[in-house]
Design brief:
Elements: H1 4-19, E1 21-26, H2 33-44, H3 48-61, E2 63-69, H4 71-83, E3 88-90
Length: about 90
């Protein structure tokens, strides 16, 4: 018989596994809002309003998870954002 703690731990592990990785963009002092918004629309296929919201989160919080997925889908996006001068990492 499973204890409540074991069940909670198992659920936490399953959630972490199914969610995959996050593509995170970090704030900097040289990219403009317009450049980041345009990049999110073109590279990550965001709607403009979503890109604007992510950009404000990046500005105020220092970072934002802009896309969730597996490594194979996120890696080309990270490379494209990096080529545009945007600091992006996969976690």
């Amino acid at each position: 018989m499973s204890t409540e703690v074991e069940v909670e731990e198992r659920v936490a592990v399953e959630e972490k596994t199914t969610r995959g990785k996050n593509l995170i963009i970090y704030n900097d002092d040289f990219n403009t809002f317009d450049h980041v918004i345009d990049s999110l629309v073109k590279v990550c296929k965001h709607e403009v309003i979503q890109a604007e919201q992510c950009t404000w989160i990046i500005h105020y919080n220092g970072k934002c998870a802009v896309k969730e997925g597996d490594m194979d889908s996120l890696l080309p996006m990270r490379r494209a954002l990096s080529e545009r001068g945007i600091d992006a990492k996969i976690h």
